[in-house]
Structures
1.
Amino acid sequence: MAEKTYLQAISDGLRQEMRRDKRVFVIGEDVGVYGGAFKVTLGFQEEFGPWRVIDSPLSETAIVGGCTGAALMGLRPVAEMQFADFVSCAWDQLVTVSAKQRYRAGTPVPIVVRLPSGGGFSGGPFHSQNPESSFAHIPGLKCVCPATPEDAKGLIVSAIEDPNPVLFFEHKHLYRRIKADVPDERYTTPIGKARTHRTGDDVSVITWGAMVYTAEEAATRLEEEEDVSVEIVDLRTVMPWDKEAVLESARKTSKILVLHEDTRTGGFGAEIAATIAEEAFEDLDAPVKRIAAPDTPVPFSPPLEKAFIPQVDDVVAGLKELAEY
Amino acid sequence: MATHTAIDVVMPQMGVSVSEGTITKWLKQEGEPIGVDEALLEISTDKVDTEVPSPGEGIVQQILVQEGETVEVGTKLAVIAPDGAEPAAVADVPEPATAQAAAEATAASDAPASTPTSETVEQVRPAAQGASETTAEDASGESSDNGRTFVSPVVARIAAEHGVDPGALAGTGRGGRVTKRDILAFVESGAPAEAAVPAAPAQASTEIAAQAPPPAPEPPAPQAPAPRQAPPPLPAQPAPQPPPAAGELFEPMSAMRRGIAEHMRRSLDTSAHVTTVFEVDLTKVAQIRGRLKSEYAASYGVNLTYLAFIARATVEAIRNWPWLNGEIRGDKIVTKQFINLGIAVALEGGKGLIVPVVKNTEEKNLLGLARAIADVAERARTKRLTPDDVQGGTFTITNPGGWGAIMGTPIISQPQVAILDVEALVKRPVVITDENGGDTIAIRQIMNLCLSYDHRLVDGAYAAQFMKELKQNLEGWDEAAY
């Protein structure tokens, strides 16, 4: 057990799997000689050689298409999109080929696509997005969004093991900011299981990714200032998502805030809110509330970006409103 | 007939298993004049959608329950005041809405045709101002925010499970709304549920229990219900409900289900049930039916069922055995000169049951009965019954034989004293004795008829003689007479 950053935890999990399983290889723009834009694969090429740590051309289509073919031939590719935003170039390969292959032909496509995502550092509209809901909508794709170093390592291992295409959304804002103890040995974190980040009785927050920390700060403030006890459910996986854990928390507190950094309309929070309304209606003591980014591209300007991404103050206000309802 | 005192309009009882209704539309607004029996509002329940007529003539003084709200049977919905009445009555109303607030609500409902003019509002406003200063302030404070009356889904569920009226609790939520925490604290405090139920709904539930149809004249005053007729009180301390175990699923109980559950339990607690079974040879009826069926369909558009024959023969038999059409009311035996037959109709999927009533069957021949039964059965299945259709039954027939049942011990629909269970018609070998005393085995169409009766009133010999006559009526079917 050693303290590691969120980024080191991902790097660790990846390295362990590559040491353990020769079928695993990484491919992406600048993942080799340069060690990746965020240095997740720093030193990998020295250890595993250029045939398992492949610098690709600037073509997400080629990266995901190549991974899909390699997976069909029995390998376990891990692709890196330099930024999650660029995955749109690989949409066709992911959505038309990878996601459907198993349904059409019965052949599994065990690929992992790593997607450095999220904003909070003035990256602007092309380097800050959280496109998980777009892919959660595609049957055949799995989407994981870890928030803690421990989960990041356990989930990258599960993603590589999984026989289906898995999109691994790693939040850039957490890379070096979040540190925690991570077990040294190999372990897996199940895909599709939520984690109760904090237990509480009065209001529940359902969230994932970097918003777990925003919710935590808000919950601490609310508990200290207003004596309101807040439960935080970290989904960890958006598809498949842990409906039972969410409904259980809804039944417990009867007041739910769904929080995400992605934009509001059609965001995955809408699916969660609708499910709660359908399946836990008689347990609700207040309308299900959503806090999400507004329906615009992510702004460059720091004050605008702050207004765009849900902040602790926004969550505090939302939780207070629910508590007082 | 103009009313001289203010009259309350309450949520009517729409059948024994209906405990609540939803206001779908107010056809008159506050301040508007209304005549007796003129439609005042539209309501909807899980079975019946209908208009509620005004019980008197006057002015709609107050509307207490807004459109879209669901309230218990017996809840006061509106007050009709005599034209030019003193406004004093307003102060007596527990949760008055000021005329202004009501006018605002009406305006917000965006119904230009029925929005009162400012003159109308002015006419009504003095009424609210006539109340004492504090009352008026409290009223406006409450009506300015919907919180006091809004009940969230979870609070509604807990309230139903524990028999608590959330309106009687002090709320700590926004605008005084009762929150989940408020109602749980109340339930956990162990306060008796009845204490929280205000007098009016309690009275209403007694009415349900007695199944007295609201429009029917009340029995004479001295005949106050005897203690044994009073419904069992609501359980003050319901057992805690364990959460679903692995493999179990919870689903909420519908209002109809709760109504049936309460009525069936209460009936067993009230009547001394005995069931007697008679075997009836319907071979002759089957032949007649075979002959008449196409004629009835072609000439009258009526499907001639066995049930119609049995209903007709039952009505004839009841004429001579009137206690089976009677009732115990207090310490009196009530017999009736009319025979209103309840026909139990199962709803789709077997989940739910309603008993529409065919009135005055003593006046109907076979054709009339067949048509009336088909009519109420069809309207029951399509949820088009009116409140009148499900009230006032004096004897009930239930018909599970269609599914092949051959014996049953049905539960009496209170306050009746008997229910006839019609079983499957099956071909059986039976011994027939001819006029010379010789026995032969023949294939006959046999049906079991099971009668559950209340032994408090009806003894075994009385019931058996009634059944014997019913059997004779069917076996020797007299086409000319029926």
Note: The mean pLDDT of chain A is 97.
2.
Amino acid sequence: MDNDPVETKRIPIIARVEGKGSLEITYRNDPQSLRKTIDQVRLRIFEPPRLFEKILEGREPQEVIDIVARICGICPAAYQVTAAKALESAAGISLSPGLQTFRRILTCGEWIESHSLHFHLLAAPDFLGYADVLEWAKHDPEAVEAGFRIHAVGNGLLTLLGGRSVHPVGVRVGGFHRLPSREACQRMVEQIREVLPLATALIPWAAGFDVPRTTRSFTSVSLRDPGHYPMNEGRIASDRGLDIPPDQFEHHIREFQVPDSTAFYSLMDGEIALVGPLARLNLNSRWLPPDLLDIVEKTGVTFPSANLWHGFLARAIEIRYALGEALRLLSELPQDVLPFVPAPPATGVAIAATEAPRGLLWHRYDLGEDGRVEKARIIPPTSQNQSLIEEDLQQSLLEAGPGAPEEEILRRSERIVRNYDPCISCATHFLKLTRKETPP
Amino acid sequence: MTFSDQRWRVAVHKMGSCDGCQLAFLNMGAGLVLLSRRVDFVHFPEMGPVNPDARVDIAFVEGSIGTADDQEEIHRIRANSRYLITIGACATAGGIQALRNGTRAGAWPSAIYPSPEYLNVLDRSTAVAEEVSVDLELWGCPVNSRQIEEALQSLLSGAAPREETDRVCLECKRRQQICVMVTKGTPCLGPVTRTGCGAICPAFDRGCYGCYGPSENPQTHLMGTRFAGLGLLPPEIARRFLFITSGAPAFGQEGNQWKKEDPHGQ
């Protein structure tokens, strides 16, 4: 088919990302020179959809909390907390300060677990030139062991508050089914203390990796919770002036489909947005504790940063932040916290947004008179990053130049996709797909 | 089976799922490195190696069969594997997404996607065993590292792996937990659900919601009747069985029985 002006090819599965994605390359054949050049590289998603919007219909609050966890095995607690918060706001209750503390500890645990999974198992081998974590472990067992220990503390915090790290069972509307004992909390304090120096060392190490110095134009979007690094509270803000409560989100995010693409794109107020660790840090670095700010300053990298490759460093900083924050909160636990605030049945529209490990996670439930879900809508972080991933892939292709070999393009493209830590399982279930249209 | 010096070749595949069961490998930490000294992971995309059509000794499969592509893929995997082990509720029972099986066929995709014909989604989400023969099923939503390790240890030492089929109740008693149903009247599926989770829901002062699927000889009808005695209405009882493992016949059939008793048919 060499005479066709356009030709496409897919590489089957992108390794070391969550879910099933592939890269699709479009070539352009020049009939005069008989040269073939790469015209476009796209992230394609072939994860089978599981249709969660419909599964949620007719379900009661606790069922909703246990169902949404199943959207993602890596960030189930973020889904649970967001659903619980939405239902709590519709019921008109707020959590006691003690319960908010425990929710924040849970979120710290999930950021540590998800980020260190990405940092050590999925992304670091790219920077070090290893095929995977096992090959890396042969050359530097200590570094890998440190990563596993940090990861285990994240899982430990999730287990402390939910019984297990994947699909934990602790969250309910109004708080938790049960709170951990003082002794169990104390054991986690000791474990965090042991790994904290290891996490501190990740920051200069990650800053030392040789990353491209390219910058891009994008809007950073995250929650903003003045006085705190944002996790489960706050308004949705951007570095271009957006400042809205979560229930206004639908009026600012525009979702659309692009011809000849299966992907679902979104724009925040007409701009290409980034959510996730780098966006959070770009908007909220001043709320990091002073000792951590010192460590960051010594790297020579300053935030806000327009270099998307700093996402890897941002994850290291957030691992260290979440460990320190969990340690602080567990060390000053208030006395006599009741596990939950009783909630009257919620009806009407229930909306909430939180910061999942990969960025802003937004839920809306339309509830019937009996409190059961009539309609659900969830916008996960990866869908919001989709446009920027595509633009980044295209830019990188231009920078590589027309003569770059295919192998090199693919290697670069895979690294770019991985850099965003996309959660394809999350994105898929809400992804709107369009049929390939034949051009007129 | 004979012992050989050759390291076993292992693949970890993924169909429609949340990726949570593969984490049972990645969460092993140092145990994963130890395991890699005994087996070769030849295909495990989330960790690194991509080699979907490699011949292997053991293929672990996460996820349910929900598209025509999945159907094709699972037959290729079966043909390439000496042992095929399903991990988790999706691969063993169709997963939570099997809830679409009980609805008007095909109505769901068109309610969500503007051009559902592109999706190639099957009307039903099914267990791997509905397509190909399976050598061992590891239940749970999610499975945990211990289940994976035990299955691998058995196979590597030439023994037939044994999967627990006891009820959650027994584990709950061993942990000396107070029964939430007897003492508080909290509906709990522990008496009919397979153990393996460590009875964590009763430990959190809530009822089991059946994420490990049915135990051996599950008295599901007695269970439903007991729930009715606790004041649950038929649709509420139906929803308890029609949840994470509705694709398991014992739960699916019981749930559908109670659904029929619901005057509104919800």
Note: Chain B touches chain A through 67 residues (CB under 8 Å).
